[in-house]
Amino acid sequence: MLRETDEPAREHGQGELGRGRPRVALEIVPEAAYVIGIKLSYTQHSAVLCDFAGNLIATTACPTSVMRRSPTQMLDEIADLIENVTQKAGMQADDIKAVGVGLPGLIDQNSGTIRWSSLLEGAHVDLHPEFAKRFNALLFLDNDTNMLTLYELWFGSGRDKTDFAVVTVETGVGMGLVVNNRLYRGTHGMGLELGHTKVHLDGALCRCGQRGCLEAYLGDYALTREAQTALNVNHLDARRPKELLDLLFEQAQAGNTAAQTIFRRAGRYLSVGLSNVIQLFDPPLIILSGERVQCHYLYADEVLADMQKLTLSNDRQPCEIQIHPWDDLVWARGATAAGLSALTDTMVGGLEVQTP
Fold first, then answer.
1. End-to-end alpha-carbon separation of the chain, Å?
2. In the chain, at which end, N or C, are there fewer CB atoms within 10 A of the end residue's CB?
3. What is the torsion angle, in degrees rounded to the nearest 10, for the CA atoms of residue 87, residue 90, residue 93 and residue 96?
4. For residues 218 and 177, is the Cβ–Cβ distance under 8 A?
5. Separation of alpha carbons 61 and 334, rounded Å
């Protein structure tokens, strides 16, 4: 797992962004093991293959459909991603020692089950037994935003922070939180569901079945719902949700008042959500990411100004907001961090596996 190196020590933050602290006299052996990180979503699945040092070797992505699938169908999709990315790397599935999978939903870290996911039919789904029949590798599941947060902690802006938060805006609204250099999940590993905090009692219907959730006003499906009215698109129109959202943004850019109003309203709800994060956790940094950050209306100056106004921030330094470009492969690479951490504990020899 480790070997001596003759390379001189590197200053923190310089050189390649590999795994671990800056090299001194020892280095991680890259070929000691290989892991795959996967992000499952509504429009595209992504996977990356890394070595034991966290270096990127191969990537793959494939389009998918907006539907709920059975556990078997989800495993088939995971298997296809594993096959595709290992072939690109010139490797076999048996060469992989761990697979990290990030998906939207509630993942119980104590049992490893998927309590609920908008991608899955049913609830309380355990993929581990069937996965073990197909692959000789460790499987680690987590909420997709937690995986992105791990990427920022291991490889991104969080490397120099002991505390920070990540907020994502895509089909849903997610949040990850790092406290004292560790990912915080809550007692059962299902905390920080920012998208399902309530902003309007008896308000808009959320896909979780409850009303008034933040993402029911800010998520892709919320924007799509309003776009049908603003763009005069009826329910028989064959446009895919992404096409409808792209058209809505194009119309807003072209000066369509109704389209602009939809984004500005969503931006106000985002300012409420971000102000609640600041008020509750007081992070020095919030990283805003997800596919919808391509719509600049959501992080316009007035949105961030409203966020500050809604917090008791007169006597403290304003929270820094970083906007990170959307990239599914970044989320998938974060999933490799989870796999690497769990795999390292097992390779050390009999240690109890701890979540990263």
1. 18
2. N
3. -130
4. no
5. 15
Cα separation of 271 and 7, whole Å?
Answer: 47
Whether 60 contacts 329, CB under 8 Å: no
pLDDT band at 146 (very low <50, low <70, confident <90, very high): very high
C-alpha radius of gyration, the chain, whole number: 21
Is the Cα dihedral 51, 55, 58, 64 positive or negative?
Answer: positive
From the list 56, 170, 59, the residue with the least C-alpha distance to 119 is 170
Give the ranges where the chain is alpha helix by DSSP (H): 71-88, 128-134, 144-154, 215-218, 220-230, 241-253, 257-281, 301-309, 328-349
Look at residue 12 in the predicted model and tell me its pLDDT.
Answer: 47
| Each residue's pLDDT tens digit, 172-231 | 899 999 999 999 988 877 788 899 999 988 898 888 889 999 999 988 888 888 888 777
Query: Residue 225: CB partners within 8 Å, gap ≥ 6?
Result: none
Distance CA(19)–CA(27), nearest Å, equals 10
β-strands 164-169, 173-179: how paired? Answer: antiparallel
pLDDT at 77 over 70: yes
75 pLDDT higher than 70: yes
Residue 73: is it exposed, middle or buried by C-beta count within 10 angstroms (0-12/13-18/19+)? middle
